[in-house]
Amino acid sequence: MIYRSQQLALRYFAASMLLFGVMIAAGLLTSLYYLRVGFLLDVFHFSTAKILHIDTLVLWLLMGFLGSVYWFLPLELEREVEWIGLAQKAFWIFVGTVAAVAATLSFVQYGGTSAASLWLINQGRKYVEAPRWACVLIAAVLVLFGVNVVATALRARRMTGILAVLIADLIPLIVLFLNAFSAEPNMSKDLFWWWWLIHLWVEATWEVFIGCVLAWSLLHLLGASRAIVESWLYVEVAMVLGTGILGLGHHYFWIGTPSYWLGIGGFFSALEPLPLLGMVIHAIYDAGAHRHQILNRPAFAWLLAEAFGNFLGAGVWGFMMTLPQINLFAHGTQWTASHSHFAFWGAYGCAVISVIYLVLQKIRAGRGDFESQAWKWAFALLNIGLVGMSSALLIAGMAQAFYERAIGGSTFQAFLTAQANRWMTEGLQARVLFGLVFTLGYFVLLYDFWKIGKGRRAPETTLRKEASG
Amino acid sequence: MKPEELLFASLLLGVFALAGGAYGSFFAIGKLGRSRLLLFTSRVFFGLQAVLCLVLLRVSTLHLGWKLFLVASLLGYAVVPPLAWSALESLHGKEKGKS
Amino acid sequence: MIGDPRFWRSGALSATTVMVAVLVILSIDTLRAIRAGGRNVPAYTVINRRIGYAMDAATNRYRPVLGGEELLFGRRYSAQEAAELIERGKLVIQTRACLDCHTMFGIGAYYAPDLTKSWLDPIWPSWQAMTQASSREEAMVRFLQNPDRYPIGIRIMPNLRIDRADAEALVAYLKWLSSIETNGFPARFGD
Cα–chain-centroid distance for residue C128? Predict the structure, then answer.
């Protein structure tokens, strides 16, 4: 039996994967501007391609999270989600809004100097460029999502630890989004609050959110006990919020904020690899302790990739550049781009893919083995592509930090000189190649999502056929 | 920090964290497989991490506070894997005991 | 004890509460420091003054240096006029999505140069000649209105239909931006 909420989850996953594809396409396009001078000048601005790339990143992950909750919530409470009809309509509003924003950004791109441009075309603040009308609707969808969760828990008269954490997390998730409407003239103040949205979403509320989703995954994937999973979730919340909230400080090094943030931000963000190492240990323990119970190898492989990817991308890559003395030069270069690619992938991308595999196995149960060659190919291509892109950007970024920042003194001329440097140009070329590997992996992944678990019939069907024949 | 030191110091920091990750991973895999070789490998990586820490203390011009932080975090890396492992074992052991 | 989820729940709650409390206290102080006219961010009328950026031996980092009067476009802006100009400048920055190619304080996209200290860039004298402008601000205005006419190395900025008033507001914005105390970012600027 499948709940209506779970049907909605499947739609969210489909939309998420579609946007994942748009993100990759926009990313590939973005990478080409670096290779050819005047590429698509006055036709399709770099900024537009870049906006599509980073905004769809946020959206495909967010839709993946919403889908995950709509999938697990009825299982957790053993009943249909309240107001699910409205949620189904909201899904189409969400999708329609995203499509309209993409069309506006692609064809109109930017507007004149007036508030109307902010309402209708482009807000021009990184990650929250979507015009205000769209942000209003997205906020409404998020609020409705919160209402779904809370109302269902109330109606079921049940509260589990995972659910309590999720509900508590929804409040900052929605409140912080209000910053998406700001047009504060003072750039220091603007960025101060903007980081509350960006950092505290990505490194606090999203981490907790995905923690809840992973907790449910562990319950269902490994059949782990609830007491263990809930303990694990609380430890995760303590570590993520214990280091992540003041880790916000590493964004306050250079934006006009007082110098005490250098120490606070540096300390808490340099601490971050330690809890991530703990998660790696945990993932390895689970792999060993449950190796005979794992019936869904792709989902588990992606869960492992998540643990290692998070440690490498957020932990190691972050640690390289987070101490203020180094960050002074590394900040705002391709080095940062390298770190963010790897960290987003490790922390969230792998997790969403893992949950989708988990769900596919449930809806295709009894239709054959949940195994394929394709998932291994997709896994290899996507991860090699991603590590390759991050490494190429790291080389380019280190060259940029060295030639533009440390030697050149960050002037326009230093910028141009560094961009023409061979380490930089070849790094950016290699990035495109690995981007193509990643793209190939994406298509194999889609193929596998379509096929896995559908292939062979269940054994008893074959037997019956033989008997009748 | 001098330009020529920038990349050197950041790479050392990266390898420092990476060595910590390798130590933890080999430790956990070694514990799982009860393999002395892997546990030994894990210690080699921790040794490497300690050496890198020493190099950073001696060579780099990181401020004193960050050098102290490095030493403290080296201790953190040393204790996180065994602590996490024994916590996991005692949690799961309890569970098995119940059932 | 460690087998009981409630133990870990209390840990999570107390860690979060302490961190949020510290963040709130620091934020109150920070917001005071970064308001226009606060200890790190000069009032908008700073656009009427000469601004420099130099190594400060005491703190061992680069810091903005505010000098005497240096009028922008030959005008002396009142507090209200300056505020309106800065507000308009910010609106231009958002509507043209400047930070999806450029960075300010290193935040934005990495396709075009950082603008934190662009007002002080040593390139302006030569661009003044290139644009046949009488002053640095005039050269900036001419460039911003027709950037595609002045290709600069391997990057060409697209024409974003910026009119004269918009361009003046942008230049004022960049001048004010360069006066903000940024803990030494960017380092060695112009050395």
Answer: 22
Q: How many C-beta atoms lie closer than 10 Å to residue B1's C-beta?
A: 20
A399, HSE (Cβ side, Cα atoms, 13 Å): 18
Q: Report the Cα–Cα distance between both ends of chain C, in Å, rounded.
A: 60
Burial of C20 (0-12, 13-18, 19+ CB in 10 A): middle
Backbone Cα Rg of chain B: 17
Half-sphere exposure of A206 (CA within 13 A, CB side): 23
Q: How many Cβ atoms from other residues are within 10 Å of residue A147's Cβ?
A: 15
Q: Which chain A residue shows the shortest CA-CA distance from C159?
A: A42
Q: What is the pLDDT of residues A334-390, one digit of tens each?
A: 999 999 999 999 999 999 999 999 999 999 987 778 999 999 999 999 999 999 999
What tokens does C172 get? 């004022």
For A393, nearest residue in chain C (alpha carbons): C110
Mean pLDDT throughout C77-101? 98
Mean pLDDT over A62-67 rounds to: 97
User: What's the pTM?
Assistant: 0.95
- Which of A465 and C97 is assigned the larger pLDDT? C97
CB A300 within 8 A of CB A353: no
Within 8 A of B28 by CB-CB distance, chain A residues are: 280-281, 284-285
Identity of the residue in C12, C91, C104 whose CB atom sits nearest the CB atom of A237: C12
- Give the pLDDT of residue A438: 98
* Chain B partners (3+ C-beta pairs within 8 A): A, C
How far apart (Å, rounded) are the C-alpha atoms in residues A50 and A62?
Answer: 19
- Write the CA distances from A12 to A71, A300, A436, A439, A451, integer angstroms: 10, 21, 26, 21, 19
pLDDT tens digits for A23-53? 999 999 999 999 998 899 889 999 999 999 9
Q: What is the mean pLDDT of chain A?
A: 93
Which DSSP helix (H) or strand (E) runs through B20?
Answer: helix B3-33
**ipTM > 0.90, yes or no:** yes
Amino acid at residue number B44: V
Q: CB-based contacts of A409: which residues, under 8 Å, 6+ apart?
A: C186, C187, C188, C189, C190, C191
Give the pair of three-digit tokens for residue B36: 């002395």
Extents of the domains making up chain C: 1-34, 40-177
Indicate the residue type of C108.
Answer: G
Helices and strands, number each (H, E), in chain B: 3, 0
Task: State yes or no: pLDDT of A94 exceeds 90.
Answer: yes
In this prediction, residue A264 carries a pLDDT of 96
Q: For residues A94 and A231, what is the distance between their CA atoms, to the nearest angstrom?
A: 35
Most A-contacting residue of B56, B67, B79, B88 (CB-CB within 10 A), to test interface: B88
A273 prior amide bond cis, ω within 30: no
**Residue B96: which pLDDT band, with cuts at 50, 70 and 90?**
low
Domain definitions of chain B by residue range: 17-98
CA-CA distances (angstroms) from residue B54 to A25, A171, B63?
A: 45, 45, 14
Asked whether residue B93 carries a pLDDT value surpassing 80, the answer given is no
Tokens of A166: 């999720």
Q: How many whole angstroms separate alpha carbon A141 and alpha carbon A70?
A: 13
State the nearest Cα–Cα gap between C10 and chain B, in angstroms.
17
Report the C-alpha gap between A425 and A465 in whole angstroms.
62
Q: What is the largest CA-CA distance in chain B?
A: 61
* CATH architecture under which domain C40-177 falls: Orthogonal Bundle (1.10)
Q: What is the pLDDT of residue A458?
A: 47
Which amino acid, one-letter code, is at A435? Answer: G
Segment C107-134, tens digit of pLDDT:
999 999 999 999 999 999 999 999 999 9
Establish if A252 touches chain C: CB-CB under 8 angstroms: yes
CA angle at A217 for the pair A214 and A222, rounded to the nearest 5°:
125
